[in-house]
């Protein structure tokens, strides 16, 4: 992995943030593109947020990239652009917790600090045969203590990486490969035959089914088809990313109701048309069916002559390709691009 061959603090920090809630295979191409565009803290701090979001698009958990941007600016202002190597200073950076600080400093600077994340939680829980879920406060504290006691006198970074890799490749959540584990003779769970029961099970999310509607408004202007879109507001889902008109209100049960919502947004009547596609995805506790419909303004002249009210904008497909989009927004854009010859604005 590239951050192992070049374990500088900035590189390790970026990799650790990307790896949160995300598998290594998914992260690798994102990491390489990121380092090509933002090879230093200074490059990251100076970047426009929309460009950062564009590079992050598809990784999800977009708060991470905003925190990285804020942290880079803090490093520039408080540490002269050099990534800090003191634990308290790293922990003070936006988006950095105990695990990330320990991982960066142990791997990049050799600090004797433990790490505890999903893989090492499982390894240490089985090591001591801890049946309580690692998310339990007392259990979590105990596991941090175990992780600290396990550290060797030197080489903490290598040890932490080995422990994480052991959990990722051998000490698996299901069907652990105990016969391939180099320390299974010292594992309490293996001794008691409790591997399948440990770690203790965490209560699964109870998903709620939800229906949402996206309305595709288009017009012909400057020799190209333009579509209505907007940057999503701060504090909401996918804040800072762009999306097509999308009604996410829980009470909206029909496309006509969604058209009414958009009419209020734009100050002019919107009529819903045929359904173009349905996208299904999950966000937090919701399992969402997104119905994408063609739509039109009741007064075609308004679309042709009028600038959309802020924050809405008319944008071409070429412009859309350069914007940071939500995952479903990107899929809609790809659909429109593929169907560009046959997708005609309503009149």
Compile the SSE list and pairings.
Blueprint: H1 2-5, H2 9-19, H3 24-37, H4 41-46, H5 49-56, H6 63-79, H7 87-91, H8 98-109, H9 118-127, H10 137-150, H11 156-169, H12 188-192, E1 208-216, E2 218-221, E3 224-231, E4 242-243, E5 246-247, H13 255-266, E6 270-283, E7 286-297, H14 300-305, E8 313-316, H15 317-322, H16 327-338
Parallel strand pairs: 1-7
Antiparallel strand pairs: 1-5, 2-3, 3-4, 3-8, 6-7
Helix pairs in contact: 2-3, 2-8, 8-11, 9-10, 9-11
Descriptive report:
By secondary structure, the protein is an alpha+beta fold. A four-stranded mixed β-sheet has the order 5-1-7-6. The chain is globular. It has helices at residues 2-5, 9-19, 24-37, 41-46, 49-56, 63-79, 87-91, 98-109, 118-127, 137-150, 156-169, 188-192, 255-266, 300-305, 317-322, 327-338, and strands spanning 208-216, 218-221, 224-231, 242-243, 246-247, 270-283, 286-297, 313-316. It has three domains: 1-112, Hypothetical protein, domain 2 (Endonuclease III, domain 1, Orthogonal Bundle), CATH 1.10.340; 114-203, Endonuclease Iii, domain 2; 208-338, Alpha-Beta Complex (Nucleoside Triphosphate Pyrophosphohydrolase).
Features:
single chain; 347 residues; alpha+beta; Endonuclease III, domain 1; Endonuclease Iii, domain 2; Nucleoside Triphosphate Pyrophosphohydrolase; 3 domains; four-stranded antiparallel sheet; 8 strands
């Amino acid at each position: 992995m590239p951050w192992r061959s070049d374990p500088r603090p900035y590189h390790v920090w970026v990799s650790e943030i990307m790896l949160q809630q995300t598998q290594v295979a998914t992260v690798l191409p994102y990491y390489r593109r990121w380092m090509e565009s933002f090879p230093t803290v200074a490059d990251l701090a100076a970047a426009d947020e929309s460009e950062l979001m564009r590079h992050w698009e598809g990784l999800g958990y977009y708060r991470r990239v905003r925190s990285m941007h804020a942290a880079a600016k803090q490093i520039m202002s408080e540490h002269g652009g050099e990534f800090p190597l003191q634990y308290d200073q790293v922990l003070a950076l936006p988006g950095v917790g105990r695990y990330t600080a320990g991982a960066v400093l142990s791997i990049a600077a050799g600090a004797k600090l433990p790490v505890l994340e999903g893989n090492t939680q499982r390894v240490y829980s089985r090591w001591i045969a801890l049946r309580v879920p690692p998310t339990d406060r007392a259990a979590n504290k105990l596991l941090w203590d175990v992780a600290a006691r396990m550290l060797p006198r030197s080489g903490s970074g290598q040890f932490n990486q080995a422990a994480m890799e052991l959990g990722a490749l051998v000490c698996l959540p299901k069907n652990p490969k105990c016969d391939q584990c180099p320390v299974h003779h010292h594992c309490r769970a293996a001794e008691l035959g409790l591997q399948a029961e440990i770690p203790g099970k965490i209560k699964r999310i109870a998903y709620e089914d939800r229906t949402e509607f996206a309305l595709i408004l288009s017009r012909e202007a400057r020799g190209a088809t333009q579509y209505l879109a907007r940057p999503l507001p701060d504090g909401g889902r996918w804040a800072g990313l762009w999306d097509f008109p999308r009604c996410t209100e829980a009470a909206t049960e029909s496309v006509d109701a969604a058209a009414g919502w958009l009419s209020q947004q734009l100050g002019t009547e919107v009529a819903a048309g045929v359904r173009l596609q349905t996208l299904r995805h999950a966000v937090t506790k919701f399992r969402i069916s997104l119905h994408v419909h063609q739509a039109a303004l009741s007064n075609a002249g308004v679309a042709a002559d009028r600038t959309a009210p802020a924050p809405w904008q008319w944008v071409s497909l070429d412009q859309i390709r350069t914007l940071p989009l939500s995952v479903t927004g990107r899929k809609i854009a790809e659909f429109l691009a593929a169907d560009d010859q046959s997708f005609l604005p309503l009149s």
